Amino acid sequence: MLDFTAKSAKVVSLFTGCGGLDYGFQELGFQLCQAFDENKSAVDCYNSNHTNTAKVKSIDESFSFDLNPDIIIAGPPCQGFSTGGGYKENDSRNDLLLLTCNLITRHQPKLAVIENVAALTNRRNQDYLNAAVSTLERGGYFCSVGVYSAEQFGVAQRRKRTLIFARLGSNPFRDFSPRSSLKPTVANALSSLHQNIQGHSPAFPTAGSKHALIANRIGQGQKLCNVRGGSASIPTWEIPEYFGRTSKAEKEILRVVRSLRRRNRKRSFGDADPVSLGEIEGAISWVTEPQLVSLVSRGFMRIVGDLYDLRDTFNGKYRRLALEDVSPTVDTRFGDIQLFLHPTENRSLTVREAARLQGFPDTFAFPENSKDAFRLIGNAVPPPMSIQIAQACRDLMQ
């Protein structure tokens, strides 16, 4: 047991971003004493929304702060660990996780919380996670590691994150257990959104443009996708307005190739491979090579050596949110219409809509530069999640 209260507990925040993780500690009355980030726009945004002041400062091995904190909270950059970042093993930002653990053991706070991507627990990143936990344990901490979904905290978003709780001493504690009686939905998150609110300036694509034509064919919960079947995937050959018309026979050829490229594997990596003319003929007796050449010439297929493959083999673009579901992960690209669509309008999401889906209150201001705003929102801890993290820290102090 620790002998201090939330009100008296001094908190230092590292890699603070716009302060999503700090938000919960501020709401619960902790003393947010110092906060640091290397990015000026993040610090400016933080200082516009928090009672304490963050500083722009490089966080490296020489980093230090001039007080003895009771709690350190940190969200070291995670792009190298994430699936979205492509598992960049040599990404220099990966070292910031271990740096954070070294800073914790050096300053010996009573509690520490580290937030990172869910993929930190994956096999490819296991060495980094093990090194981090071992550093904390050697420094005198008992650790708990868990992967949590934002939905568990009442956030209308399919976002998974790893949380490391570390408490000074050898006494064990139960794993963090989020609580929420809410069933979050996109509809609830975006309800009653006034047009004049900061960060909400809907931008529609030009009528008849690529974005407008494609968006018009994508329904709620659907995406533009050639490599997966099912009702959630709309392939390019079903959008003749932009990609061109295909006959019933050509659609069948494309669907068969979509299936064969995932079923008949040739390589030990990736999840699909080009297919041969013989493979296609084995599945469709009536197919002819001129039919395939025609599909290649019109951009539906491509030739890879002596094999055939689909064009546009991304897993999904123009993902339209569904009102009665949760949102995909709100990332730094959430305002790109080619990636995400508003649930009922043929446009991208606004900064305020992304903030709502992250659980930020409308009073939380973001930069007028939308690129900066989306980056800060996408990298943030959802405030409803940070409130429960702060509550867990308060419980660990009692």
Low-confidence runs = none
CATH H-tier superfamily of the largest domain:
Vaccinia Virus protein VP39
Into which percent range does the helicity of residues fall? 25-40%
User: What would the average pLDDT be, to the nearest integer?
Assistant: 92
Write the element-wise H/E pattern from the N-terminal end onward. EHEHEEHEHEEHHEEHHHHEEEEHHH
Radius of gyration: 24 Å
Number of domains: 2
Largest sheet: 7 strands, mixed
Please explain how this structure is put together.
By secondary structure, this protein is α/β, with parallel strands linked by helices. The chain folds into two domains: 10-184 and 369-396, Rossmann fold; 226-310, Winged helix-like DNA-binding domain superfamily/Winged helix DNA-binding domain (Arc Repressor Mutant, subunit A), CATH 1.10.10. Helix content is 31%, strand content 15%. The protein has helices at residues 20-27, 40-49, 95-107, 126-138, 186-190, 210-215, 240-243, 248-263, 277-283, 289-297, 351-358, 370-379, 383-396; strands at 10-14, 31-37, 54-56, 71-74, 111-117, 141-149, 160-168, 223-224, 233-234, 301-304, 307-310, 319-320, 340-341. The strands form four sheets. It has a seven-stranded mixed sheet, sandwiched between helices. The protein has a two-stranded parallel sheet with strand order 8-9. The longest helix has 16 residues, at 248-263. The mean pLDDT is 92.
Question: Which descriptors would you attach to this protein?
Answer:
398 residues; alpha/beta; Rossmann fold; Arc Repressor Mutant, subunit A; two-stranded parallel sheet; 13 helices; 13 strands; 31% helix; elongated
